[in-house]
Amino acid sequence: MTINKLPEASTGANCVGSITAHCPEKSKLDKNSSLVLLVGGSYERHGKTHPYGHVAIRVITSKKDITYDYGRYGKVWGVGGSEGEGMLRVWIDFSKYMRGENATGRLTIGHSFNITEEDANNVISYFEYKIKNKTPNLDRGFMKQYQIVNYHALKSNCTTVSIDGANIAIPSLMKGSNKYNEGKGLSTMDKLAAKYEGWPQRIFMPADFNSFLNGLIGEHAPVKTITYKK
């Protein structure tokens, strides 16, 4: 695991003891929780390439460490399995989530943002609402799986669900992201099919999302990136 720390944005420390300085509220400075966007790359298994990648979202507070992982983990249908039963996996043991990802041989990049504990709890509440009154169809103790909204490769996938959760804590996160919406990881035929159906107006592919996050600079950039590999 490799950690690359980026320069941290100013927290207004110069306001301490100042009478005239305009100081942010303490709650805005107290970013003691983390939101980590986990972007997994393509991989090969048994001679077959899996090019699409994967995205999950991890939320860490002083009391909780939860990873939300959405995907086609049930029945699939549509052209090339482009649709299916959308399952949200809720992991309370991050090491076990990463063990499964690393087992594929893929490289996963964690883009970590500092957020307030209030914002972190709001993200958790957002996902809890999605599974409210639902019974898990899989329970391993460290991970519970719930069926939520159906999966659609262009409209509701691991990338879009993770972005929607991240937007709860960082509303401006995706500003300027449209230019990265290229469909990296899609074959030529996949791209033609997507254009025929109607190309999404926002990023929907993991590789595009990773490029966008890598391109963030200054106060909008992640405070660190973590590389996970086997």
The number of strands is 12
Low-confidence stretches: 6-27
Calculate the terminal CA-CA distance, rounded to whole Å: 9 Å
Q: What order do the helices and strands follow?
A: EHEEEEEEHEHEEEHHHE
Backbone structural class: alpha+beta
| Number of separate domains | 1
Question: Could you tell me the mean pLDDT?
Answer: 90
Give the strand content: 25-35%
The tally of helices reads 6
What does the largest sheet look like? 10 strands, antiparallel
State the share of residues found in helices, binned by percent: 25-40%
Shape: globular
Rounded to an integer, what's the Rg over CA atoms?
19 Å
Description:
By secondary structure, the protein is of the alpha+beta class. The protein has one domain (30-228). The protein is 26% helix and 30% strand. It contains six helices and twelve strands. It has helices spanning 26-29, 94-103, 117-130, 158-169, 188-197, 206-215, and strands at residues 2-5, 33-40, 43-45, 48-50, 54-60, 65-77, 83-91, 108-115, 138-139, 143-147, 151-152, 224-228. The strands form two sheets. Strands 1, 2, 5, 6, 7, 8, 9, 10, 11 and 12 form a ten-stranded antiparallel sheet that branches. A hairpin with a 3-residue loop joins strand 9 (138-139) and strand 10. Helix 3 crosses helix 4 (158-169). The radius of gyration is 19 Å and the shape is globular. The model is unreliable at 6-27 (pLDDT under 50).
